[in-house]
């Protein structure tokens, strides 16, 4: 694997290989000395053109635990503010011997553009990891979510998984649907208001619900999404109060799922809108373990791309 740009079309065996590779890295994160030398001598550039708390930080931790040198480009003080283009920025960082770019960008396709540019420049040894592009893909979030489900629930084929909320604007949902489909989930449900669900979800084998109570009945996994206001621009939307009343996850609605159902959320949370605090902080929530698993999964992805012997 040269780049990780999307989970669409990623073979099942590669997906499972990443999840399997992450297992021992989770143990590394619990050791007193948390470092392994797999990326020693490599330079990983974090390029976050859009804000992030979890993804940026866990990529940095993951790269450091692999012994890489990590450079966080501060976009707001970089020369992009003087009009320097994305690809000129990439060329200059390549001149500093970059080995990997971890890229978040508000524009869908930006990491693909960088990967193509590197190929055209003959820089095939430089890797790109998509850390979230527009509303298109967030592959490492999709992978850490699959890791979380497997950790708590084991066999995907026996599970009913519900994705709830603003699927239309969600790169996370797109990556989750791709991964769940590849892994052969038993039943995939997508729940949300008509205005926030894309058309054609049925072609991925999803059952579509516009009523949260109906959709949650007997599910094993509830994956909540936030309203992505920054990507909506003039969409016809319910008010926050109406949204909470119809699609907010409350203890009473969660009681319709299986008694051992887990609740996931990629973060950031909008408490009191898509999820109540009593659910987010409750016994069925695995929201914070998702963040911890994200370090191990990102270590696995970076090792697979650029670790010693990775391209042998
Ligand atoms: N889940 C996620 O992408 O969170 P951040 O935006 O904080 O990275």
Automatic annotation (TrEMBL):
Q: Which residues take part in binding L-aspartate?
A: 82, 171, 226
- Note whether rRNA-binding occurs among the keywords: no
InterPro entries for the chain: Asp/Orn_carbamoyltranf_P-bd, Asp/Orn_carbamoylTrfase, Asp/Orn_carbamoylTrfase_sf, Asp_carbamoyltransf, Asp_carbamoyltransf_Asp/Orn-bd
The record's catalysed reaction(s) read: carbamoyl phosphate + L-aspartate = N-carbamoyl-L-aspartate + phosphate + H(+)
Q: Where is the Aspartate/ornithine carbamoyltransferase Asp/Orn-binding domain?
A: 159-304
Q: Does the keyword Transferase apply?
A: yes
Q: One Pfam family of this protein, by short name? A: OTCace
Alphabetical keyword list:
Pyrimidine biosynthesis, Transferase
**EC number from the UniProt entry:** 2.1.3.2
Instruction: Kindly list the positions annotated as binding carbamoyl phosphate.
Output: 54-55, 104, 138, 141, 267-268
The family note in this entry says:
Belongs to the aspartate/ornithine carbamoyltransferase superfamily. ATCase family.
State the function annotated in the UniProt record. Catalyzes the condensation of carbamoyl phosphate and aspartate to form carbamoyl aspartate and inorganic phosphate, the committed step in the de novo pyrimidine nucleotide biosynthesis pathway.
Relate the assembly described in the record: Heterododecamer (2C3:3R2) of six catalytic PyrB chains organized as two trimers (C3), and six regulatory PyrI chains organized as three dimers (R2).
The name under which this protein is listed is Aspartate carbamoyltransferase
């Amino acid at each position: 694997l040269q780049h990780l740009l999307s989970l669409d079309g990623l073979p099942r065996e590669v997906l499972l290989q990443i999840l399997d590779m992450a297992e021992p890295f989770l143990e590394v994160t619990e050791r007193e000395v948390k470092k392994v030398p797999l990326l020693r001598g490599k330079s990983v550039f974090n390029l976050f053109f859009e804000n992030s708390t979890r993804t940026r930080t866990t990529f940095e931790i993951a790269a450091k635990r692999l012994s890489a040198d990590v450079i966080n480009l501060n976009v707001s003080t970089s020369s992009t503010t003087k009009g320097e283009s994305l690809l000129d920025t990439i060329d200059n960082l390549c001149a500093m011997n970059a080995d990997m770019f971890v890229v978040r960008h508000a524009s869908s396709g930006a990491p693909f553009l960088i990967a193509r540019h590197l190929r055209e420049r003959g820089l095939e040894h430089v890797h790109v990891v998509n850390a979230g592009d527009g509303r298109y893909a967030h592959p490492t979030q999709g992978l850490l979510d699959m890791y979380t489900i497997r950790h708590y629930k084991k066999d995907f084929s026996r599970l009913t998984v519900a994705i709830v909320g603003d699927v239309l604007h969600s790169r996370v949902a797109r990556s989750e649907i791709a991964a769940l489909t590849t892994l052969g989930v038993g039943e995939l449900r997508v729940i949300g208001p008509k205005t926030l669900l894309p058309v054609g979800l049925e072609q991925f084998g999803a059952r579509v619900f516009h009523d949260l109570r109906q959709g949650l009945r007997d599910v094993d996994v509830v994956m909540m999404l936030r309203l992505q206001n920054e990507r909506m621009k003039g969409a016809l939307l319910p008010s926050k109060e109406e949204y909470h009343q119809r699609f907010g996850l409350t203890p009473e609605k969660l009681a319709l799922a299986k008694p051992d159902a887990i609740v996931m959320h990629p973060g950031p949370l909008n408490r009191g809108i898509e999820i109540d605090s009593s659910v987010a902080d409750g016994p069925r929530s695995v929201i914070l373990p998702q963040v911890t698993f994200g370090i191990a999964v990102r270590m696995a992805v970076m090792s697979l791309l650029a670790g010693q012997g990775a391209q042998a």
